[in-house]
Amino acid sequence: MGKDQIFTIVALCIYAAAMVLVGRVSYSKSKSLDGFLVGGRKIGAWATAFGYGTAYFSAVVFVGYAGQHGWNIGIGSIWIGIGNAILGCLLSWLLFANRTRKITKSLNTKTMPEYFEKRYNSKGMKILAATIIFVFLLPYSAAVYKGLGSLFGAIFPAVPAWVWMLIIACLTAVYLVAGGYMASAYSNLIQGVIMIVGVICLVFAVLNHESVGGINGFIENLGSFQSAEGDKYPITGDQLTNIFGGSSFKFLCFNIMLTSFGTWGLPQMIGKFYAIKDTAAIKRGTIISTIFCLVIGCGAYLIGSTSRLVLGGQLPKGGIDAIIPTLLTTVLGNGTLGLILLAIIMVLLLSASMSTLEAVVLTSSSAVAVDLIPAISKKTIKPEKHMLLTRIVCLVFVACSFIFATQNIPIIVSLMSFSWGIVSGCFIGPYVWSLFSKRITKYAAYAGIVSGLLTVGVSTLVISLNSGFASAAAKSPEMGVAAMAISFVIVPLVSALTQNSDAEKERVEKIFECLKED
Fold first, then answer.
1. Which residues touch 42 (CB under 8 Å, ≥6 apart)?
2. Is 496 exposed, middle or buried (0-12, 13-18, 19+ CB in 10 A)?
3. What digits encode the pLDDT tens for the residues 336-376?
4. For the residues 478-499, what does the mean pLDDT come to?
5. How far apart are CA 126 and CA 111, in angstroms?
6. How would you class 280 by CB atoms within 10 Å of its CB: exposed for 0-12, middle for 13-18, buried for 19 or more?
7. Are 400 and 145 in contact (CB under 8 A)?
8. What is the pLDDT of residue 87?
9. What confidence tens digit (pLDDT) does each residue in 61-109 have?
10. DSSP label of 440
């Protein structure tokens, strides 16, 4: 066993022990459904801010997006990180955090489907929203497992990827099923610190690698880069150093919009605002979360933009997804200090992914246990049985995600490309307008959800029939942005053509009274 493997195993064992301890400590505070799903609505600024940021960035961002876009676009890809921090984080907190906290507390809602039911007085919308969440977040979580499995497979080539996925699934299940949202909040603090320290150290190590030439030599070396003959992805130095992405400007803009505005409608992101304790915590959390996202997002894409220099312009054997793992082993694979840092970075990527998995598992399992099953069965479930059901569904969702990831089902895995756009495209219009306008009707909210779903669904079907599913997957950012835009526009339009009853107007008026409180 090599030193890199020994250091990584030690780091993983320490991290695993910390997560199990978090689950044990959190168990006593998660015995009620309110405590399990929203932490009793008493979560502070740091935990909520780090929770938002760590749910935002998983290993998929580092290994997939940062590696691919850094390789194909260059330093212009850093705009994705900036857009995520300003549009996806800062603007989201400023516009939605306080209103979401007050209204969801007033309605006593713990999930987005439950919020839609009480805001629009529609049980059918609750069932529809819960179904969409479960169907499309399941392949997303499976893709996160696969990303981590591939990453650890690069360090431990003799160990099958499914073994690492199983370890990650068991670890996630142990502390999340035991501690719920409180475990997630505590672990997010630990994971956030690991991610910040790890990214700063990695940026420093990569920029000072001999092939990069430090901060001063980076732009010069990148500008003089020439692709090797026969390169499958040929590119010029001018493209790599173009701050606005050069020929990839349009592609860059769509990715910024998808990954930034997408957070406005994602239940696992918006759910963080349900639990924060007060307005003062929101003000602090806004600043903390934005800084966190700037450091992590810009750091990830900066590292990706150095990949052609570090790897000598040669795409690794594993393709695009192998860029970052190969870069890590190239930069940190020599010397004791480098190997220790490599172990820390591996824990960083594990932390980033597990925080995303926590948010997705809680969101999806609550959609089934809290929203779907009671609505379909039409029976009142006793609190203690509801808690047990929620924990069991959490466990089942983790197991299903693991099974999907190991089976390598092409259609299921490919759905990950659409998950972000579909879920946010369905919910962004009904959710955002529900916070700011009393005139939004139930029919308008339905129109927003259905239009987002149809935009991606019909587009995917048409493109797949004409050019194949791979071509449709390549267009997923454009489809996701279109779905969000259509949902956002169609909700007020349909509201203008429909009208709430007098009783409904009075009910909505009472809902908005909570916004007058300090």
1. 275, 277
2. exposed
3. 666 777 777 777 777 777 777 777 888 888 888 878 888 78
4. 94
5. 10
6. exposed
7. no
8. 95
9. 777 778 888 888 999 999 999 999 999 999 999 999 999 999 999 999 9
10. -
Q: Over 70: is that where the pLDDT of 434 sits? A: yes
Q: Give CA–CA dist 70/477, Å, rounded.
A: 17
The two structure tokens encoding residue 412 = 């299921």
**In 315-468, alpha helices (H):** 323-332, 336-366, 373-377, 383-407, 410-414, 416-436, 442-467
Q: For residue 82, give the amino acid letter.
A: I
CB distance 39 to 276 below 8 Å = no
Q: Are 129 and 270 in contact (CB under 8 A)?
A: no
User: How does pLDDT run across 210-222, given as a tens digit for each residue?
Assistant: 889 888 889 888 8
**What's the rounded Cα separation, in Å, for the pair 408 and 17?**
30
Q: What's the CA gap between 18 and 25, in Å, rounded?
A: 11
> For residue 284, how many C-alpha atoms fall within 13 Å in the half-sphere facing its CB?
13
pTM: 0.88
Distance of CA 432 to the CA centre of its chain: 19
Rg (CA), the chain: 23
Q: Collapsing DSSP states into helix, strand and coil, what is residue 311? A: coil
CA distance 314 to 326: 11
What is the distance between the alpha carbons of residues 386 and 31, in angstroms, rounded to a whole number?
A: 11
Contact assessment for residue 141 and residue 357, using Cβ atoms and an 8 Å cutoff = yes
Tell me the two tokens of residue 385. 């049985």
φ and ψ at residue 272, rounded to 5 degrees: -65, -30
Q: What angle, rounded to 10 degrees, do the helices at 112-120 and 267-275 form?
A: 80
- Domain boundaries along the sequence of the chain: 3-18+44-408, 415-518
**Helix/strand/coil percentages in the chain, nearest 5:** 85, 0, 15
Query: Pseudo-torsion of CA 348, 260, 72, 153, nearest 10°?
Result: 30
Q: Please give the biggest Cα pair distance in the chain.
A: 73
Alpha carbon distance 192, 289 (integer Å): 10
Over 70: is that where the pLDDT of 2 sits? no
* Alpha carbons 234 and 213: distance in angstroms, whole number: 22
Within 10 angstroms of residue 28's Cβ, the number of other Cβ atoms is: 10
**DSSP annotation string for 57-78:** --HIIIIIIIHHHHHHT-GGGH
* CB-based contacts of 394, cutoff 8 Å, min separation 6: 173, 176, 177, 361, 362, 365, 369
Is the separation of the CB atoms in 106 and 511 below 8 Å?
yes
- For domain 3-18+44-408, give the CATH number: 1.20.1730.10
Angle at 145 between CA 143 and CA 151, to 5 degrees: 105
Other Cβ atoms closer than 10 A to 40: 16
Predicted confidence (pLDDT) at residue 412 exceeds the cutoff of 50: no
Cα–Cα distance for residue pair 442/117, rounded to 1 Å: 10
Task: Enumerate residues 6+ apart whose C-beta is below 8 A from 191.
Answer: 50, 54, 351, 352, 354, 355
